[in-house]
Amino acid sequence: MPNTNSVAYYYNSFNKSTGVQNWDPSWKNLCAYGMEYKDWVTLLPAVQLAYNTSQHSTTGKTPAVVEKGWNPLLPVDNLKKNLLTIHPTAKDFHDMWKRACETASKCIAEAKEYNKQRWDKTHMEPEFKEGDQVLVSTLNFNMLKGPKKMRDTFVGPFTIIKLIGKNEVEVKLTEEFSRKHPVFPVSLGKPYFQTEEDKFLSRKKNPTPPDIVEVEDSPGPVSKIIKARKIRLNGKDQRQYLVRFKNQTADKDKWFAEEAIPDGNFI
């Protein structure tokens, strides 16, 4: 076959050649876009390369492998498929952002653990059981009347009728609070104790002191009342009087309750 340019301009000049006939579809496509590609002759090597590296339906191999035993290198083989090339500034910003996120996450975790330790150290949720009597916080009681600052902090006692998991209890509300939902978190309740002795079992009970100190041997008849005072004794207010006796000095003055003053009718 002579090496001429007739193939490029008249593709059927060697129609008796099988290789040229196989190029027919590709050449026709190029001719169809001849007005777009002003010099489509320069595209012929690319067409030839594409044909020789395309798998044949009959042989299952490419013409290059059948003829020469190997495929030529294509431009795509020289591309770095697994390498992502980015701008250095963008990469530095990404690294900085990643480190900032890691530092923030670490600080949040440490703060959470610190707060948990502080809370667990000073707080302990009460352990309730069915039948216990509890006081309930009025934090969410909106039906109470009067100024908020003057309301009771806790109301009750109410009897626990059901435990809902470890964090909630259902109580039997009185008629006054019947509109309120009877389920409360354990954090809003506290045990109810009828007396201080029930609340502090280890506390020693001191004997009740007498209201007044009675003097068996009175220094003498009462001369006058010097002054009075009010004190709180055993949870009750009590008025006492400082008594001076006849023919006695001030160091002999005594404090007496009204009913215990010698010659009480003196007052």
From TrEMBL:
Residues 131-192 form the Tf2-1-like SH3-like domain. Signal peptide: none annotated. GO terms for molecular function: nucleic acid binding. It comes from the Eukaryota. This is Tf2-1-like SH3-like domain-containing protein. It comes from Austropuccinia psidii MF-1.
